[in-house]
Amino acid sequence: MATARDAYAQYNRNKIMTATPAELTLMLYEGAIKFCNIAIAAIEQKDILKANTNIQKVQRIIEEFQLTLNFDYEIANDFNNVYNYLITRLREANISKDIDVLKEVNEHLRTMRDTWKEVMRTANR
Predict the structure, then answer these.
(1) Are 55 and 93 a contacting pair, CB within 8 Å?
(2) DSSP of 12-36, one letter per residue?
(3) 49: which residues sit within 8 A by CB, 6+ positions away?
């Protein structure tokens, strides 16, 4: 018998499988922000393992963004520099469990997500 949880998991799988590349990018930004928020809450709750796990999830998403950069375009170098900076800050936050650093990273991620949403909106006109 399928549970509501199973149905929700299936819905999410279908959502990912049918998403456009632009929508997948947006989902990754949303995921990175979510994991960063979880890491902040975990540090506040003194749950170091949970903080570490979620900081690493954010790092992996940013690394995935780096892997998809097309260096035929000059702007890719700029994005790569931003991604390198964010990964460095995440490592620092993970070592020191510094909430302020995570909040800074999260602010950058939100700005990038919001910019991506605007790109998607204008592309769909």
Answers:
(1) yes
(2) HHHHHHT--HHHHHHHHHHHHHHHH
(3) none
As a whole number of angstroms, the longest Cα–Cα distance in the chain is 53
pTM for this entry: 0.85
Q: 124 is written with which tokens? A: 């769909």
Angle between helices 99-123 and 21-44 in degrees, nearest 10: 160
Per-residue pLDDT tens for 61-116? 999 999 999 999 999 999 999 999 999 999 999 999 999 999 999 999 999 999 99
Helices (H) and strands (E) in the chain, counts: 5, 0
What are the residue boundaries of the structural domains of the chain, listed by start? 22-123
> Token pair of 68, please?
């998809």
Residue 106's identity, in one-letter code, is N
From the options 3.40.710.10, 3.20.20.70, 1.20.120.340, 2.40.10.120, give the CATH code of 22-123: 1.20.120.340
25 contacts 41 by C-beta, under 8 angstroms: no
